[in-house]
């Protein structure tokens, strides 16, 4: 059996390095996609404003050393596209890349306001989020005879008020909000045939988000019923919250302290959403961790002018090598 080979998994690339002795299957993941921005002439340009190019550079630079470091088990080095649109990890998981994985680790650069340059954080906390669309059926009629029809705009308005009155444990951070409303195009003196409400839901935990989704479904159904109509709730996009394994986070923290000194360890820092966590939710026995690398990125991630200090990138490479040594050396 080859000790080193490269395969395509989903839409991404996987470099596999096998040790001579048996051991765990460990996955290291770098995302690789850029973000679209509009240009003055109306075009679209892709810019690495989230630093995923630096993630590839840091992990790729460690690969030649992995060949020496990995003595036991298997290391899968994953370069994943489509993180920003939350499709890339799922495509790789559906292609079976996560099936045999015992431990999965990812890393992300942080902007200076989240993590000072030269410091590393042992855990990035990501929230769970979804996008839902609720389609409310109306009964079109002349606007002069509203009592003969069903106005889906009325239903939408009341549903949004009811959603904003939702109760979730106040100890948890969460939010639900309508971000777009659209009705059947047509004359302004006609009751529309349908209204769609786009919703953005966020919660600190996956269980908190599941509770919100259940309440959304109930509120949409019962508000529509009160008007004698129906509402269809569709999930458009979802991203799970981080659920880390205590011993993996401890191992990451210990590695940062050993490689960079305790003064450069930060316990946790914040992040947005991350599709890496599908590796956990789709196979819960996978132990996961996710560290942050302070690289002096300004003015902030997702800003089209984001720049970082390249001199800090070897820190990421050093971290990957040290983790490989601990887990598979
Ligand atoms: Zn991003
Ligand atoms: Zn990112």
How would you explain this protein's 3D organization?
28% of the residues lie in helices and 33% in strands. It has 329 residues and is an alpha/beta fold. The chain has an 8-stranded mixed β-sheet with strand order 1-2-6-3-7-16-8-14, sandwiched between helices. Strands 11-12-10-13 form a 4-stranded antiparallel β-sheet, covered by helices on one side. The structure holds zinc ion (ZN) (2 copies). One zinc ion (ZN) binds at residues 50, 52, 83, 108.
Question: What distinguishing features does this structure have?
Answer:
8 helices, 33% strand, Aminopeptidase, alpha/beta, four-stranded antiparallel beta sheet, 2 domains, eight-stranded mixed beta sheet, binds zinc ion, 329 residues, Alpha-Beta Plaits
Which secondary structure elements does this structure contain, and how are they paired or packed?
Layout: E1 4-9, E2 12-18, E3 21-31, E4 35-38, E5 44-47, H1 52-60, H2 63-69, E6 72-80, H3 88-94, E7 103-111, E8 120-121, E9 124-125, E10 128-137, H4 152-164, E11 174-183, E12 194-203, H5 206-226, E13 231-239, H6 246-260, E14 265-266, E15 269-270, H7 278-281, E16 287-297, H8 313-328
Parallel strand pairs: 3-6, 3-7, 7-16, 8-14, 9-15
Antiparallel strand pairs: 1-2, 2-6, 4-5, 8-16, 10-12, 10-13, 11-12
Helix pairs in contact: 1-8, 4-5, 6-8
Give the class-level CATH name of the largest domain: Alpha Beta
Biggest pleated-sheet summary = 8 strands, mixed
* Low-confidence spans: none
Question: How many β-strand runs?
Answer: 16
Domain module tally:
2
Which oligomeric form is depicted? single chain
Distance between the termini: 19 Å
Question: Could you name the CATH homologous superfamily of the largest domain?
Answer: Zn peptidases
């Amino acid at each position: 059996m080859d000790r080193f080979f490269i395969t395509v998994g989903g839409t991404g690339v996987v470099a596999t390095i096998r040790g001579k002795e048996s051991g765990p299957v460990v996955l290291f993941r770098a995302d690789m996609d850029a973000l679209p921005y509009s240009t003055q002439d109306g075009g679209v340009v892709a810019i690495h404003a989230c630093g995923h190019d630096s993630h590839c550079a840091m992990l790729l630079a460690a690969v030649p050393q992995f060949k020496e470091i990995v003595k036991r088990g298997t290391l899968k080095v994953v370069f994943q596209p489509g993180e920003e649109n939350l499709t890339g990890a799922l495509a790789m998981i559906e292609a079976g890349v996560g099936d045999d994985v015992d431990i999965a680790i990812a890393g992300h650069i942080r902007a200076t306001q989240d993590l000072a340059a030269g410091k590393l954080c042992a855990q990035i906390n990501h929230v769970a989020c979804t996008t839902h669309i609720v389609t409310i059926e109306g009964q079109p009629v002349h606007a002069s005879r509203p009592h003969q029809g069903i106005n889906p705009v009325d239903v939408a308005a009341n549903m949004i008020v009811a959603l904003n009155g939702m109760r979730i444990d106040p100890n948890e951070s969460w939010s639900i909000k309508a971000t777009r409303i659209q009705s059947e195009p047509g004359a302004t003196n006609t009751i529309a045939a349908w209204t769609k409400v786009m919703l953005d839901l966020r919660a600190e935990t996956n269980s908190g988000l599941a509770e919100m989704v259940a309440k959304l479904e109930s509120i949409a159904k019962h508000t529509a019923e009160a008007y004698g109509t129906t509402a269809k709730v569709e999930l458009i996009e979802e991203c799970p919250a981080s659920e880390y394994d205590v011993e993996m986070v401890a191992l990451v923290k210990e590695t940062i302290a050993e490689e960079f000194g305790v003064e450069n360890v930060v316990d946790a820092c914040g992040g947005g959403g991350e599709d890496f966590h599908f590796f956990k939710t789709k196979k819960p026995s996978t132990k996961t961790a996710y560290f942050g690398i302070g690289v002096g990125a300004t003015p902030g991630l997702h800003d089209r002018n984001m720049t970082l200090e390249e001199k800090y990138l070897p820190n990421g490479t050093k971290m990957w090598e040290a983790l490989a040594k601990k887990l598979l050396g």
